[in-house]
Amino acid sequence: MKAPIDYLLLGHVSADLTDDGGRVLGGTVSYAARVAQLFGLRVGVVTSARGDEPLLAELLTYAQVCSHVAEQTTTFENRYIGQDRQQTLFGHAQVLTAAHVPYGWLSAPLVHFAPVADELAPDVFALFPQARTLLTPQGLLRQWGADGRVRFKRWLDETVLERVDMLVLSRQDIAEMPELAEAYAAHARTCIVTDSARGGIVYHAGVPQPYAAFPVEEVDPTGAGDVFATSLLASLPHYGGRMEDAVRFAARLAAISVTRRGTHALTSDDVRAVFQALERT
Predict the structure, then answer these.
(1) What is the CATH number of the domain that holds 248?
(2) What are the Cα distances from residue 8, in Å, to 99, 186, 189?
(3) What one-character-per-residue DSSP string does 171-224 give?
(4) For 96, 213, 221, 241, which has the most beta carbons within 10 A of its beta carbon?
(5) pLDDT tens track of the chain, all 281 residues?
(6) Residue 1: inside a domain, yes or no?
(7) d(CA 103, CA 82)
């Protein structure tokens, strides 16, 4: 039986192929689990991977994991040609349905839908009517063919958008169809479109409100979007649900994350420092 949790993540872990032929743990659920536990939250992850997937051992240091056995672990290769990224999908684990979520985790107060390869069935989004829910839709905006090449897909599911409390995506996610931002804002209660060092826009009930990024010298932007989304949801209870305060917190913690190399660079001391800094302003 799974122990109670505070922060639930749903989505595939991924095996990201490195230039030297190695495999490293990836996927939004992996990055987000690391961040959520820095808040002192009990984290649970519902995912799917090979039964003998060694990368799951790393995730277990941050979260309880309910992994449903698949023939393959979702596997990505990223190649860069100039500023352009070519992404290829070499494997895809099980689609996650409502039946895959442990009963004891249905009462989690914070729920983060975190697909990377269109792996969440529609019934999953209806499971948590009492929770604060957040969707990072990057994986819903991807499609691939027989060659595995990942390409942009137009995604607009009004039923899903109206069920989640918050939608968080980057301007880059919808670069091929930027008009989707306003379409999402028309259906989601709160839609936040981040734009790296330029800050971003919070749409609440369709009304846009820009927010500023915290100025820093960038060293490594890897995972900054996941830090922003996770810390937004994780900090909301501290702020009594006040979105403006949570956005300021998320922007500041994400900014700290890009000043260091590696996705393990943030600490619980950083989380406490940001809370204290914002209390003084």
Answers:
(1) 3.40.1190.20
(2) 15, 26, 20
(3) GGGGTT-TTHHHHHHHHSSEEEEE-GGG-EEEEETTEEEEEPPPP---S--TTH
(4) 96
(5) 578 999 999 999 999 998 887 999 999 999 999 999 999 999 999 999 999 999 999 999 999 999 999 999 999 998 877 667 789 999 999 999 999 999 999 999 999 999 999 999 999 999 999 999 999 999 999 999 999 999 999 999 999 999 999 999 999 999 999 999 999 999 999 999 999 889 999 999 889 999 998 888 878 777 789 999 999 999 999 999 999 999 999 999 999 998 887 667 899 999 999 999 999 87
(6) no
(7) 47
146 in a structural domain: yes
Q: Which two tokens mark 167?
A: 């939608």
DSSP 140-178: GGEEE-TT-BEEE-----HHHHHH-SEEEEEGGGGTT-T
Residue 206 lies in a domain: yes
- Residue range(s) defining the domain that contains residue 262: 7-279
Could you count the other beta carbons within 10 Å of the beta carbon of residue 138? 23
Would you say residue 71 lies in a domain?
Answer: yes
In the beta sheet, which residues pair with residue 7?
43, 110
Q: How many CA atoms does the CB half-sphere of 215 hold within 13 Å?
A: 0
Among residues 34, 38, 56, 54, which one has the least CA distance to residue 46?
A: 56
Helix (H), strand (E) at residue 31: helix 28-38
Distance linking the first and last C-alpha atoms of the chain: 44
